[in-house]
Amino acid sequence: MADDASFPAGSEILLLEDDLPLRKRLAAHLRLHGAEVTEALRLEEARRLLRDLRFDFAVVDLHLPDGEVLDLLREGAFSENTGVVVMTAFGGVKQAVEAMRLGAGDYLTKPFEPDQLGVAFSRCRWNRRATRRDEHRSAEPGAGAEELFFGQSLAAVRTQLDTIIAAERRLERRLPPVLIEGETGTGKSALARWLHQNGPRADRPFVSVNCAALPDTLAESELFGHERGAFTDAKRARIGLFEAADGGTLFLDEIASLSPGTQAKVLTAIEEGTIRRLGGTREVQVDARVVTASNRPLDDLVAQGSFREDLYHRLNLLRVVLAPLRDRGTDILPLAHHLLARIAARHRLRGLTITRDGEARLLAQTWRGNVRELAHEIERAVIFSPGPELDFATLGGAPIPSAGNWRNPAWRLPESGFSLETAVNEFIADALRETGNNVSAAARRLGVTREFLRYRLSGAKEPSAPPDANHPGG
After folding, report:
1. Do domains 12-128 and 155-321 have the same CATH topology?
2. Do the beta carbons of residue 249 and residue 206 sit within 8 Å?
3. Contact, 110 vs 117, CB < 8 A?
4. Angle between helices 356-364 and 332-346 (to 10 degrees)
5. Which CATH architecture has domain 12-128?
């Protein structure tokens, strides 16, 4: 269980018990731990209190002089945001189980030590948050884990992430937020999940929400929760996703879609570690590690006045930028093979390969949809290809480039630089392989003399004068 067996500071607790000595003993223990306790000894009194006040927890005896607590549960008298702990005498376990079926979070069998209340409250909190996460997942299917491919082009990003995770392991609590920027389809969601799965909270909840899909009127309720009657349709209370992710990670995708008012509340949640539910009167402590993402640079949005500058500066502490696929150079091919292996396994297919013509076509694309578009194109080929060799003929484009326009227009010089010497050697190796190690034919393809090629192959220094491009090459 993720929560500690403790009493949240300032918790409002209803204590419903007709046994005066037991009630006073439990009340004293709860107050000693900083709880605000309201005592009641009859069912009717509890009904009135539940109608007029809001409680974080309720500790209730099953049997009271004027009725059964099961009646309160059947009536829906307890708010959905109230964790109900039922107390029962030996032999009353069957009724306690019925109480849990009706919405109670836990039960304790008398006699018990007051310290056991902390464990029961912890179970209530955990069950409530787990239920909220299940509701959210059912509304947003397809959010499974993805294996992230870094390659050479994202090596610097991987180093940056390792540094962030090392800092998180030192901090443990109140982790700073992370901002991920990149075009649509570059893998921001996969990166957020990778960061969670490789960090100190890997065994805690990961809650992902697409802010762009939240209507302005519902965004605050989804993120921060609400009490009964907070707005017209709020017939049931519900905790928000910040509370559901408590102890774990909350991923806010496309955070720039949130209204300025909601952005201000997100800032408060990050800086102070507290939220207030809609219709609520008190702050709720939360420790959700926040990861955010945007498909547009947030500093540009700040300049345009559409994103809060104070929130931007808070998020920009740890900023990770994902390059578009068109700028990832030859990493496109190992990425394509990585995606093919994953997609083929999902389709239960073996022996699928990408032909050289297929590789050429993949390299020739601009991939405006980035990694997501590439993955969809590979899956389409897996489904419709008549055999195990994928050539991506539907992408069009000549797989064999012409002599005057042979370089892939999507290729860019890597920012980290590259070895020209190595590149020349690779050109020579490719030419020899494609011509069956025929030196004369390879020289013609490369536009150099046989002598130049032999110098390169022997490891000697090539001639200082440029080769005669018009030499017939034998």
Report:
1. yes
2. yes
3. no
4. 110
5. 3-Layer(aba) Sandwich (3.40)
Take residue 469 and report the two structure tokens written for it. 């491009």
Specify the CATH number for 325-395; select among 1.10.8.60, 1.20.1250.20, 3.40.50.11810, 3.30.1360.40.
Answer: 1.10.8.60
The single-letter DSSP state of residue 81 is T
| Tens-place pLDDT, residues 50-98 | 988 889 999 999 989 888 999 999 998 998 889 999 998 866 778 888 8
User: What pTM does this model have?
Assistant: 0.68
pLDDT number for residue 467: 46
With tokens 């294996």, the residue in question is 147
Tokens at 281, concatenated = 């009167």
Rounded CA-CA distance 50/56 in Å is 11
Ordered by start, the domain boundaries in the chain are 12-128, 155-321, 325-395, 419-474
Q: What is the pLDDT of residue 465?
A: 41
Which segments of the chain have a pLDDT < 50?
A: 1-4, 141-145, 398, 460-474
- Please give the pLDDT value at position 139: 52
C-beta separation of 38 from 49 below 8 A: yes
Q: What is the 3-state secondary structure (H, E, C) of 195-250?
A: HHHCCCCCCCCEEEEEHHHCCHHHHHHHHHEECCCCCCCCCCCEECHHHHCCCCEE
Angle, alpha carbons 441-443-449 (nearest 5°)? 130
Predicted local confidence at residue 473, as pLDDT: 44
Q: Does domain 155-321 have CATH number 3.40.50.11220?
A: no
Taking a C-beta distance cutoff of 8 angstroms, is the pair 90, 110 a contact?
A: yes
Q: Is 168 exposed, middle or buried (0-12, 13-18, 19+ CB in 10 A)?
A: buried
Q: What does the alpha-carbon distance between residue 323 and residue 301 come to, in Å, rounded to a whole number?
A: 19
Give the C-alpha separation, 84 to 96, whole Å: 11
As to burial, measured by CB atoms within 10 angstroms (0-12 exposed, 13-18 middle, 19+ buried), residue 235 is exposed
Per-residue pLDDT, 452: 87
For residue 469, the model assigns a pLDDT of 44
